[in-house]
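Hi everyone, sorry if this is the wrong subforum. Our group has a chain we'd like a structural model of before ordering constructs, and none of us has done structure prediction before. Sequence below.
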Amino acid sequence: MIAGSPNELDRVPRAVAIGSFDGVHRGHRAVVDAVHATGLAPTVITFNPHPRIVLGNKVELLTTLQRRLELFEEAGVQDVLVAGFTPELQHLTPEAFAETYLSAIGVETVVAGEDFRFGVRRSGDLALLERLGFGVVVVPELPGVSSTAIRSALGEGDVRTAAAMLGRPFELDGVVVSGDQRGGTLGYPTANLRLEADLACPRYGIYAGLALGHRAALSIGTNPHYGGSERRIEPYLLDFDGDLYGKRLVVELWERLRDEAVFDSEDALVEQIGRDVEATKQAQRPE
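Answer:
Right subforum, don't worry. Here is the predicted structure as tokens:
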């Protein structure tokens, strides 16, 4: 069940993981696995919007809230409480947070990393939870795996390293909107994917991936051959025939093929797109 407040969840014996879980990467999955291992009802408390964004920091999110919830479901989480990161929540003491969000839904055990902090000014820790009567399971961090490290890899266009940390390919998750419709005249009709403003996007370039079960050759950038200035994300789905306008589209990125480029002629551009499509057919999904 997806709940927006504690009173929407039954009070049953639960083990809970608490956090933003941006990306639901391998480190987060290790915490979820430890929740399952307790034998209690597996539960996650996550926050929306991301706390760091609310506090005025720029954060390029690795997943939309919708995708985060889908990944929790895939991981077998029974209930997810999406807590609105409001001023009221920010100013809750650790004790008040524990009473409102943990005791009220039956939490018996909290599963977290050893540096877990909660409550106003991050003043609560695992030792406090134990003093309040909760069981605590500490999950060691996975060396080198973090949302920050994944963002750094994406900034270099290194989607394979990002995938190794995520435990799956990095995804672009957005809505198809109208574009220049130039690809169709070149023989390669593309969708124009619009992302939410705070979502991470890899270094500009040409990528191979997958969408809707079809191989996808994807251009991310400004279309320099046509003198563009705004970012465009344009997947071409191989062997696909259908109308995607207005629909959600999730594109896996498997491999970075090359930089954007300006070509001597449109014929040269079309020839390169053909080579990109062939490379896309040969690309291997990162594991």
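For your construct planning: The mean pLDDT is 93. Residues 170-282 form a domain with the Elongation Factor Tu (Ef-tu); domain 3 fold (CATH 2.40.30.30).
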